[in-house]
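Justification of computing resources. Each target in the renewal requires a structure prediction run like the one illustrated here; the chain below, 1073 residues long, is used simply to show the kind of job we budget for.
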Amino acid sequence: MHNSGDESAVLWLDQIQEAVLAANQDEEEALTLAGAVADINRSVAEGDSQDTLKNLQAPCAGLKAVLPECADTYQAELEQTKTSGATEGNTDSVWIKHCIKDKYDYYYNLETGEGTWEEPEGYEHNGGQLSKDEIQTVVSCVTAEYNREQLWLANESLVTQLQARVRGYLVRRKHAQRMEYLHQQEPHVVKLQACWKGYKQRKIYKERMNLLQKNVASVVMIQSMVKMWKSKRKYSQRLQFFKDHEKEIVKIQAFLKANKARDDYRTLTGAKDPPLSVVRKFVHLLDQSPLDLQEEQEGTRLREEVVTKIRSNQQMEKDLNLMDIKIGLLVKNRITLQDVVSHSKKMKNKKSKASKDDLTAGDKLGIKGLSKGKRRKLEAYQHLFYLLQTNPSYLAKLIFQMPQNKSTKFMDTVIFTLYNYASNQREEYLLLKLFKTALEEEIDSKVDQIQDIVTGNPTVIKMVVSFNRGARGHNTLRQLLAPVVKDIIENKSLGINTNPVDVYKAWVNQLETVTGEASKLPYEVTPEQAMSHEEVRNRLEASSLALRTATDKVLNSIVCSLDNIPYGMRYIAKVLKNSLHEKFPEASEDELMKIVGNLLYYRYMNPAIVAPDGFDIIDMSAGGQLHLDQRRNLGSVAKMLQHSAANKLFEGENAHMTPMNNYISQTYEKFRVFFQSACDVPEPEEKFNIDEYSDMVNLSKPIIYISIEEIINTHTLLLEHLEAISPDHSDLLHELLQDLGDVPDVESLLGEGAVDSSDPNRESVLNQLAKTEISLTLTSKFELLEGDDKDLKALMTKTKKLIVDVVRIQPGETLPAILETLATAPQELEHTKIVERRAVQDAQTPEGLKSNPAVLEDGQLPLEQKKRKILRNLRNLEQAGLATAGDKYQELINGISKDIRYQRRYRQRRKAELVKLQQALTALNSKTAFYQDQMNYYDTYIKTCLDNLNRKNSRRSIKLDSKGDDKGSKKCKPQSLKYTAARLHEKGVILEIEGLQTNQFKNVMFDISPTEEVGDFEVKAKFMGVEMEKVQLHFQDLLQLQYEGVAVMKMFDKAKVNVNLLIFLLNKKFYGK
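Resulting structure tokens:
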């Protein structure tokens, strides 16, 4: 009160009374505490641990963490502490000092038990007494030590077990390292010992021989008995020497034989004309072992699983995309909730049916039945699809005979199915040959200007890009782009915005947020006005720097990962470049590289950078999505790379980006080198080591898995366009289609009785059963048929197989010498044993892996009959110019040598394919799980909508009553739209119609009407009132084209349409947007 400086400040009586009571209470507490501490010191001095424990536990002492189990330890530690304190201070004083509430000193008299707040006269602290803090410290330490000891005791077994496992691991690792070292060095040790022992034996032998030669005269003089005894002893020693060194001799012989075998194999693989004596030593490699059969079966099984899983995933993806559209329309009240629920149930039904179906479920009925007629029909289809698969010209022409909407569906289903989604190298080779043929056909017939490849949407290019983005589950783009895309997405500080107006608006918003006042700057400005502000220029400069840095990372990842780009993409880029150069020889190398860049970067990589979540580049949870800023960053980088790949400089609306033009030119040079290197790939024949005889050497026949509906559609299309794709009536395709006859219906292929004729839902059941998949083992109708020696390829293969059987039994320097020499009885016996062993093995071989019956029949002939048949075949081949007696039929020997080398590479390739198929199956299963998560997410969303609907009794715009839906749909169903081509031309939707002048557009009428499927439209074209053509238009496909940046598309193969304006028209007229 005195220090406050306020003279009027006084204490009231109540305040004084409260202060007195508080002081008295503090006095009592201090005295009680001092007494308790004195009691503890006394019991410690007396040495009674239980009394000490009791005083420690006294509430007035205020001590924490006191445990009865530590009583003796408390006593010992407190005594030690008290003793050490007594040695350092005075122990005779009766006064001790306590600190109360960390700020008041309280003096306690040990003799009288009284205390005072004021320091007594002559005060001297008793150092032999422990304070409360010292006691608490000792108690806390002892208790903590006890708790720690109990913890170790409780976990003693775990600690022991951990130590044992660590020691065991160290010992095992040391032992494994030692064993690995010994195993690695074993060949060197064996070789060293062999060489040293050989040297020693040669040295001993030379010394012995020298000794004998020096004593020839003395030996002659020795009596005959001595000679005989010495000869016997020498013979015995020599014999014993060989017996003692039998292992070394065997090793030397093995070494020499191995060297000889290696020399022979080098001759086989490296010599232009390997001799028959060398080839004969390796013909056993052409035999098929049980391991070969096992690997072939495993490969067939995995290919079946991969193809089935791919088709299942594609169907799930289509259903989920349609569900996206339906939910989007539901949100905008364009459809009812019942439509979404209905589609969800269809998805579940398809999934449950797919899980129960089996590819072999219908093998006993229909086309795969056991009757002769059905078997003939099956073989006819197998011959047809083999011809289509191995001769790409038919499918290439067929693709361009169909309307674009049909050809796209045909490619996505039948073509990829026919080639098993390139699940092995043979089918990848054949698919690439189809792509090449189709691309050359499209460029030759549909590309009038070199820029049509860029501005249009070529069918083959779209098919190639779609396939190489991971139809088989191998997402190469993920390996190529995932690291750099993740860096851009996860960089929270990265903000790329090169639009001056957006940057200006963000700056104004920031100023208003910071100051809390409305900015005096205008909000709506032009890019030029925005660039007039220094802050905007600074921010744009920072964004440009960040953009260059991010672009460089992505570019470096692309150009350094040339080997990661699929061979198929690089080969098609090479074909594209060469075909365009052939058709447009005046085009510069720079123009061609831009076209290649459009394929490799813009069509293949760019969409994956812009939308990595949509192309499986990054992992996203169901319902998850990228932030707007992340998408803008990725879009900016993609746009910069797009301009760089095409060497397109910024100008016009992007004039503010002109400082980046120099960077674009530099980046284009890197891209140009990359595109040139990408086109530098070998031909498929060299890459896959496949030629015209490969199918005849392979153990297993190609198998495809195709639905009944796809068989019927393919048959129908071939008959419809037969004259266009095969005008020559003597062509094999005409013969095969004639064997098949008319197009069968679904029920005839499934088998009579597959569907009950009285079933009211018979049509829908048949439509569902049409999706049933069957397996077809593809074979050539003209492959090794008995007596069919006109097929020179088959005759060549048959003759080589017979020669192999003969030369492995009968030796000789040349083939004519062997064929002219009669076989001995032992040789005939050995040949009979081989034939019997082969027959036993063939009986155990699965049906799909058995050899051709004609080949089996030839293999069972006696040795002499085989030789006679070889001579007859050689004369036919010589007449055809495929063999020459003058060089002793060396061409056939070279062919056998090539088959031996191919067989070895085929086994290696098969092992690699098994690994790739396993990886593909794993990736496909992961994708299936992701789609299942998406379906579960949609199910949860629909359930939430239903729950919300059921909670409210009021009428909603979403109705679940089917009758109400029917009425509502009738009221709200949009009518078809009719526009003349002239009106659509005014709107900018139609740009031009081939073969028609603009003043004639008024005679063309377009009728656009929605179908039952949401998002699908039917467009009919009429000229002078006569309907000319109609096409199905999928809204999702239009959005995909818009997303990929395709501005112009062709409709009816004649009308060029602006994609963006067509989408705007459909949104406005049918969706009210």
